[in-house]
Design a protein that fits this description.
Number of strands of chain C: 4
GO molecular function (chain B): branched-chain amino acid transmembrane transporter activity
Chains: A alpha/beta (about 450), B mainly alpha (about 400), C mainly alpha (about 350)
Largest sheet of chain C: 2 strands, antiparallel
Shape of chain A: globular
Pfam families (chain B): BPD_transp_2 (PF02653)
Order of helices and strands of chain C: HHEEHHHEEHHHHHHHH
Distance between the termini of chain A: 44 Å
Oligomer: heterotrimer
Protein name (chain B): Branched-chain amino acid ABC transporter, permease protein
Largest sheet of chain A: 7 strands, mixed
Number of strands of chain A: 18
Subcellular location (chain B): Cell membrane
Membrane topology (chain B): Multi-pass membrane protein
Number of domains of chain C: 1
Shape of chain C: globular
CATH architecture of the largest domain in chain A: 3-Layer(aba) Sandwich
CATH topology of the largest domain in chain A: Rossmann fold
Chain lengths: ~450, ~400, ~350
């Protein structure tokens, strides 16, 4: 056995530790006097950026990280300031947050709830992060949001689209800027009805996990309200890579619209397969067959290549928006990195600014003060028009974009065109809407 | 003492000292220094070290002794986690019933699967266990989380909601997993000059349990039962010809290692009350295989070392980003700094998988007996001696 | 009827990929006795050969077009591939369009070299080591290979479309009055796989080289005693197995866009296929590949999933369990292989 090695090392280390103990006999218990977890000490404040760096969403995570780095630069007064100049709340001064320089730590969620929580915990326990943000899937967002609630830090979610994040699983310490499945349905359905007619038969392919279900439920409800019928809803395994055996039955099902409730690699493959099977050229009872991808992202559209042309979907934000704020963001992101930001990058950048602003307005890093400052906060100038952080469920309400895959892209980034900006009023819902029922925000938790 | 030989007893004592002093040993660098990035002495990672240590010790009882390579042990880890969270949901946040139930449930599950899979050996056994684990994962991820019968809560992971019954929960008790009122999250921070050390209740509970498991493993390794298991590995056929039925022994080993895995799963939930289905995926099963082989299959301490190494990489190396690198190499002239960072960058942060892959290869190529063999070589180097008999007997050949 | 035929085609299609990877795995196992966990990575590298080729063909020079603007408002840089300027736009575009079939020619030498280097540089040293060590080292290699690909190509899938002429839909049932519209490229894939499989079998069956290799698989020592350098031949077989996996990857690209972890996605399933077929049996691997492919296709139909919820996710594993419990060595396995 390794007794010799171990004891040797053990002796050395214990010796070292004992030496330290003798040399520095001052004993300090660091029980926080400040009344909340990880109160920033000294002249810096640490934020935790928890994004997927390995696994299939790594590219999206990398884009999120770029946005965070940009946001930190802007908060610390470097660079051109980006959306800080267009933000309706002009509290931030470019001197960090409340005069404390912003520092950050990064971690890898691996798009697994366990790994994401482990990474977030290390940020909280080891690095003293006072806020955690990021993520690229709803499972991870909900898992980390729950952790932050328990630990007493703020969670500003990144890309998470499931209704549950601010529904069944909402938490007082968690905030979502991104839109959700219900909003996608509410924004998309009228456009679909207007473009494809009200007499349509839809066939749903749905990723078989919580996000897929809530998305499918939302889209089906919204389209059925406008006269569509749902022929069939088929659940597909998350691990599926080839969707041919799910697509083939669509051919002779009598349906004339295929709705793909998929994201990421699933979406790329199912859309590719659907186009392969000639669905885009198919005619059913004199009607052109159509494919719909309710949640679009430019990064994924890029993975799907030619196949996205003409396909309708919804998105949280797109770089081609012409408002001053979006332009400012695209300019400073594009100048730094050489390509336009994705919607994931946008929501992460905005979340960081919103957090910093809330702290500055509250005058404290205490999570409860931040929660109070964010609840019911009305703002503008962050790329989505006038926006409300609703107090009841910590969900942002703003305009939703309906987009279409561009037929003649001028560059590798120019893949989507905005068809309609659905006004905020149209996507609003009551906090106790059945699709969001069952959750409880609880009390804000300041931790220690 | 404790029914152990002197050699094993000293090993146990060393391990005990190391685990008890881990908060010091794992935080060798001052908090504000650049090297603090490499500190691992914070509660979550220390908990992971000992919990995955338990998982690997248990796996080694099956693989290291009998040579049966299970590719489905993560299923027991997952079942244990779910069982424990269900106890939280039904009874309340005391961890004791949850941990006990996770051992019982995973033991039963292992018995069921073991009876079926142990009818085959070699790679056929491996694939059978893999098949069961993958089925469990697929079902837990989707079918078993449908709204009508929600056993696992699917993608989000099973967690405690405010409207769960929690029959024995009272307002006096912490609203997080606890042991008779002592919260698992309770951490005492001690500052010694530039250093900060964290003493966490959850960690110490897991560490004590790991020591118990380690002790039990030593006893199993040294018992007639353990000898019988080794016989299965070295030549099952000859054993069968002598009229011994080896199946009950392998089944017992399988169930015991399944219970270890379930215990590890229960402890994971106890220190962090959320159980995700990914814990059952084949990659998780593969991870424990890697931990065991990396550390040294068939040795007592090897699996624990392997578990520590892999978790260290996952949690520490993945957090090194470009700005950290600039911090480290900032003292270099600009051109050189950029050059060094380009060189190092692919291996840290998002490239931590790459480093892990390279280490797997290096260890297997140069240290066939895993880290333990590396330790022995260094030990020999220092003492300038040939391997002693004791070292030889403890290191069995890695199994096929 | 139409639906059944469609699903059989889907099954053959999935089965082709399984069978090709499993065939390579079995070749390596049967000849060298090595469990190669990096085989999925070889499949992935094959697919990325075609990504690389299409990148090379699309190497472009930039001209500034002041009439259009890019996203920052600067004049747009229009890219023209060199191929188009050398051979004229028409020919150039055709070459780019046919980049996937061209990639076959590109991939064969690359995969042979990769296979050769892998065997000589690494696997060679692991013949006498336990299977667990082989698994660990090849798994490590697989991680390293896929991380390298991820570093250069990113994590997102990259489309490698089929040539226009082969990317439509063929109506197969016209003559029979059935509605069977099936993607042409998938039919090409099935045909290509069958060709490759028959080629491999014919090579082993009807050439002297193949005969020696088969003799070596049956009794390595005796063949060596006859003064034949069996190691060299086995090395070539490793290269060949790598090439088969690589070609399977190249041709799979247009079906589903390649990404860096596609190898891992196929790895576990391929192992199940090999074991269900029977370790060391080449016909078994092919048979099990197609069988499991077809079963998977049928388990995905609505009829199956409503009868038994979740059957589509577990069917392969369920079949594996049933086969292994009723036929201890898989469908066509030989006695004494990998049982100790």
């Amino acid at each position: 056995m390794t007794k010799p090695t171990l004891s040797r090392r053990g002796v050395l280390k214990t010796g070292a530790a004992a030496g330290v103990g003798l040399a520095l006999p001052t004993y300090l218990s660091a029980a926080s006097h400040s009344g909340f977890t990880n109160a920033p000490q000294g002249d810096t404040v640490t934020l935790g950026f928890n994004v997927p760096q390995s696994g299939p969403y790594a590219d999206e995570g990398a884009d999120e990280l770029r946005a965070y780095q940009l946001a930190v630069e802007h908060l610390n007064g470097e660079g051109d300031g980006g959306m800080m100049n267009t933000f309706s709340s002009q509290v931030l001064e470019g001197n960090g947050i409340m005069g404390k320089k912003v520092e950050y730590v990064t971690g890898d969620t691996q798009t697994k709830s366990d790994a994401a929580r482990a990474s977030a915990k290390s940020m909280i326990e080891k690095d003293g992060a006072v806020m955690i943000t990021g993520g690229s899937s709803s499972g991870v967002a909900i898992a980390v949001q729950g952790l932050c609630q328990e630990a007493g830090v703020i969670f500003m979610s990144g890309l998470t689209h499931s209704n549950d994040t601010t529904g069944k699983d909402k938490k007082a310490n968690g905030f979502r800027h991104f839109f959700n499945g219900y909003m996608s349905g509410a924004a998309l359905a009228p456009v679909l009805a207007a473009q494809y007619g009200e007499d349509r038969k839809a066939y749903h392919l749905t990723a078989d996990y919580t996000w897929g279900w809530t998305q499918q439920e939302s889209i089906a409800a919204a389209t059925e309200a406008l006269g569509w019928t749902t022929v069939e809803n088929v659940l597909t395994p998350l691990a599926a890579t080839d969707f041919s055996s799910y697509i083939a039955p669509v051919l002779n099902s009598g349906a004339d619209v295929l709705v793909l409730n998929h994201y990421g690699g699933n979406m790329v493959n199912s859309l590719t397969n659907a186009v392969q099977f000639g669905l885009r050229e198919k005619m059913v009872d004199g009607k052109q067959f159509e494919i719909v991808v309710p949640l679009f992202s430019r990064l994924m559209a890029r993975g799907a290549g030619e196949n996205v042309k003409g396909i309708l979907g919804s998105t949280n934000w797109h770089w081609s928006l012409q408002d001053e704020a979006s332009q400012a963001f695209v300019k400073s992101f594009g100048t730094k990195y050489g390509f336009p930001p994705s919607q994931a990058a946008h929501t992460c950048y905005v979340q960081t600014l919103l957090y910093a602003d809330a702290v500055a307005r509250a005058g404290s890093f205490n999570p409860c003060a931040v929660v109070e400052a964010l609840e019911g906060f009305e703002f503008d100038g962050l790329g989505n028009g006038p926006t409300l952080y609703r107090a009841e469920d910590h969900q942002c309400f703003k305009d939703v974009l309906v987009v279409r895959g561009k037929e003649n892209p001028t560059s590798e980034f120019d893949l989507l065109e905005v068809v309609e900006v659905t006004p905020r009023a149209q996507v609003e819902y009551a906090p106790d809407h059945p699709m969001f029922a069952g959750g409880n925000l609880g009390q804000c938790n300041p931790g220690a | 003492m404790l029914g152990l030989k002197k050699h094993d007893l000293s090993l146990l004592i060393i391990v005990a000292i190391l685990t008890m002093a881990a908060p010091f040993l794992l935080n060798p660098f001052p908090t504000e220094s650049g090297m603090a990035q490499f500190n691992a002495g914070y509660p979550d990672l220390m908990q992971k070290f000992v919990i995955f240590g338990i998982f690997a010790i248990g796996f080694n009882i099956l693989f290291g002794l009998t040579g049966y390579l299970s590719f489905g042990h993560a299923a027991f880890l997952g079942v244990g986690s779910y069982a424990c969270v269900w106890m939280f949901k039904l009874l309340g946040y005391n961890v004791l019933p949850g941990i006990l139930l996770s051992i019982v449930v995973s033991g039963l599950f292992a018995l069921l699967i073991g009876v079926i899979t142990l009818r085959r050996s070699g790679i056929y056994f491996s694939i059978l266990t893999l098949a069961f684990a993958q089925m469990s994962f697929a079902l837990a991820y989707s079918v078993l989380s449908n709204p009508k019968f929600n056993l696992t809560n699917g993608e989000t992971g099973l967690q405690v909601y405010a409207d769960d019954p929690q029959w024995f929960h009272s307002d006096r008790l912490p609203d997080l997993p606890h042991l008779f009122g002592l919260s698992m999250r309770a951490t005492h921070r001690m500052e010694l000059g530039a250093w900060e050390f964290q003493f966490n209740v959850g960690y110490y509970m897991c560490a004590v349990i790991m020591l118990l498991c380690f002790y039990l493993a030593i006893r199993i390794f040294r018992s007639p039962f353990g000898l019988m298991l080794r016989a299965v590995k070295s030549n099952q056929q000859r054993m069968n010809y002598t009229g011994l039925n080896s199946r009950p022994y392998t089944l017992a080993a399988f169930v015991i290692s399944g219970m270890y895995a379930g215990l590890a799963g229960g402890l994971l939930s106890a220190v962090d009350p959320l159980a995700g289905a990914e814990r059952m995926q084949w990659t998780a099963s593969g991870e424990v295989v890697l931990m065991t082989i990396l550390g040294g299959a068939g040795t007592l301490i090897g699996p624990v070392l392997g578990a520590g190494l892999i978790k260290y990489f996952e949690n520490i190396f993945s957090k090194i980003n470009e700005s950290v690198l600039h911090g480290w190499f900032g003292f270099l002239p600009d051109g050189l700094e950029d050059f060094v960072i380009t060189l190092v960058y692919p291996f840290v942060g998002k490239g931590w998988h790459l480093t892990l892959g390279v280490i797997f290869m290096l260890v297997v190529i140069f240290l066939p007996g895993g880290l333990v063999e590396g330790g022995q070589r260094i030990g020999r180097l220092f003492r300038g001696k040939k391997p002693s008999g004791a070292a030889k007997s403890a290191t069995t050949e890695p199994a096929e | 009827m139409d639906a059944i035929i469609l699903q059989i085609l889907n099954g053959l299609d999935k089965g082709s990929a399984y069978a090709l990877i499993a065939l390579g795995l079995t070749l390596i196992f049967g000849t060298l006795g090595v469990v190669n966990f990096a085989h999925g990575a070889l499949f992935m590298i094959g697919a990325f050969c075609s990504v690389t080729l299409s990148k090379l063909l699309n190497l472009s020079f930039e001209t500034v077009d002041p009439t259009q603007k890019d996203f920052l408002g600067n004049p747009l840089k229009v890219k023209t591939p060199y191929v188009e300027s050398w051979f004229g736009p028409e020919v150039g575009a055709t070459i780019i369009d046919w980049s996937v079939p061209l990639a076959i020619l590109f991939a064969i030498p690359i995969m042979l070299v990769i296979g050769y280097v892998m065997e000589r540089g690494l696997i060679k040293h692991f013949y006498k080591r336990p299977h667990a060590d082989q698994i660990l080292v090849t798994f490590g290699l697989a991680i390293v290979l896929q991380e390298i690909v991820k570093f250069y190509f990113g994590a997102n899938p990259i489309q490698t479309p089929a040539p226009d002429a082969l990317s439509g839909v063929a109506n197969l049932g016209g003559a029979l009055g059935l509605q069977i519209a099936y993607p042409i490229w998938r039919l090409v894939y099935i045909g290509f796989s069958l060709l490759l499989i028959f080629g491999a079998f014919a090579f082993l069956q009807f050439t002297t080289f193949g005969m020696v290799v088969r003799a070596g698989m049956a009794d390595r020592e005796t063949v060596q005693l006859l003064g034949i350098d069996i190691d060299r031949r086995f090395t070539i077989m490793f290269g060949l197995a790598a090439a088969i996996a690589g070609l399977a990857g190249v041709m799979y690209g247009p079906i589903n866009a390649p990404n860096y972890h596609m190898g891992m996605d196929f790895l576990v399933l391929s192992f199940v296929v090999v074991v269900v077929g029977g370790m060391g049996s080449l016909p078994g691997a092919v048979l099990a590949g197609f069988l499991l492919g077809i079963l998977e296709a049928f388990a995905s139909t609505t009829w199956a999933t409503t009868t038994i919820p979740g059957i589509n996710q577990i069917i392969i594993y369920l079949v594996a369990i049933i086969v292994l419990l009723t036929r201890p060595r898989g469908l066509m396995g030989k006695k004494g292989v990998m049982e100790d």
